[in-house]
Amino acid sequence: MAVQNAFEQKKRAILSEIDSTQPDLSPKGSIDALCLPIIELINTSNDMVTTSSCSGRVSVFLEGTKSYNGEVKIGGKGQGGKWLYVTHDHEKVVGWLDELMSKNEYALETCGKHIPSEQITGTTRYILYKYEPFILHVKCRDFQIASKLYNAAMSCGFRESGIGSNNLVAIRINIKLDVPIGYLDESSETLMLFVSPEYVSILDSLSLSKFDENARKMQTLYDKIDNELINCIPAPNTKTKVALAETKEERRERKKKEGMERQRQLKSTQNQL
Amino acid sequence: MAVQNAFEQKKRAILSEIDSTQPDLSPKGSIDALCLPIIELINTSNDMVTTSSCSGRVSVFLEGTKSYNGEVKIGGKGQGGKWLYVTHDHEKVVGWLDELMSKNEYALETCGKHIPSEQITGTTRYILYKYEPFILHVKCRDFQIASKLYNAAMSCGFRESGIGSNNLVAIRINIKLDVPIGYLDESSETLMLFVSPEYVSILDSLSLSKFDENARKMQTLYDKIDNELINCIPAPNTKTKVALAETKEERRERKKKEGMERQRQLKSTQNQL
């Protein structure tokens, strides 16, 4: 019987959670489909395991109530902050304003020509429109592997990456939008937009461009990791494994199918809940 | 004669550059005054040296010409991108629009009620209003010190920090604004604003709040580093030095004065150039 070290135990536990048809701990409850290829790729390595990910998303967030006890929370979630809209799917970006209105949870108006600046105070709950790019956390067997992954990510433009505690690598890139588009008028429970629907359309088209750029960067990173950490010839005295049994294309295709199958299973489980 | 190792040589070279009255390599040419206390604190340690910093800033950036050869650059600097306005000083945030207009480099108009969406294409050069928070890079003697600094930063809310190559720690926080506020009408060389001056005022007041939050976070980080990396009782077998000759307050006061003196010298040098 092979004795597992701490990394291997952790990896097995994480993979069995990923393989499970139960929802995971994220608000969405499952891995974003666009992340599956790179997650599957990384997890073929004996030296790495993915721990969390987001493929990139557009969100519209209503800040919570801000506290003045001690620290003033500006721009944070606050008490009772909530997502008015979230999508990871570029096809669901355009039209979010209509969808939000159709929910009838809040009334929604545009400020029109003049913003009632007397209503904007330090405790105003803003509505924030955000584009957030791909982010991935990967636990590595040792610091050498973590460094290699970090260097691969940095060289592909993921310039805000870093190694954290316990050889956990965060892969991050700075493709963002962070725009205050309105505020909640608490007296009338109305979402008041500072900006016109035309301006919202411009934000949406910028988000679509960012989704594209994001997808290109993810592919570049996939190829880099594939070439430098997976299908590499190991240098003497490194633990990196050679995995050449199937071609890149074959594995990519197989992993994509397996991932899609798991998504289907997960969806059918969720529908039954 | 003491033999210096690579870290010590590097540190001495960096400190002599900081101490020099010559402009540094940044666009601004000098260290932001708000960064001086934490930079001086960190550099009192034998195990750390700061390599770059920004105290936080508001900027208005005109994107450059985008290329369609190969990769489309969206949201990047592009060829000929330029800063229309930059300030690290919270007192110079309000009024930037007037200052920009007074420069007469570009005509400036607001789109008014309707954005001419037919003019917005994939090659449109947007005007981006940004708030970017404090960022600091610190080279550490070894991985143990880098980990300690990383953990200190994370525990103060600098959640996008990370350790990079050669024990270089990047300390980063996510307090941002990233707002497309207009575009360049190339035919008339006119900056066209999507948003009203009132909306710009809201952005400015949000930036001011972020400057405040940023300053609080910097102070928290200063105290944490002071307590855990500078004035700490070393655990057995660590190389961390004890530096208790003067009290925290005394050193802070002295370092502040020294920093201010250097800024004055630098300014007078720059005025002579």
Describe the structure.
The structure is a homodimer of 273-residue chains. Helix content of chain A is 37%, strand content 20%. Chain A is α+β, with helices and mostly antiparallel strands and 273 residues long. Chain A has one domain: 2-Layer Sandwich (SSo0622-like fold). In chain A, the strands form two sheets. The first copy, chain A, has a six-stranded mixed sheet with strand order 3-2-5-9-10-4, with helices on one face. A four-stranded antiparallel sheet of chain A has the order 1-6-8-7. In chain A, a hairpin with a 4-residue loop joins strand 7 and strand 8. The longest helix of chain A has 34 residues, at 197-230. Chain A is elongated and about 65 Å long. The two termini of chain A are 39 Å apart. At the A-B interface, helix 4, strand 7, strand 9 and helix 5 of A face helix 4, strand 5, strand 7 and helix 5 of B.
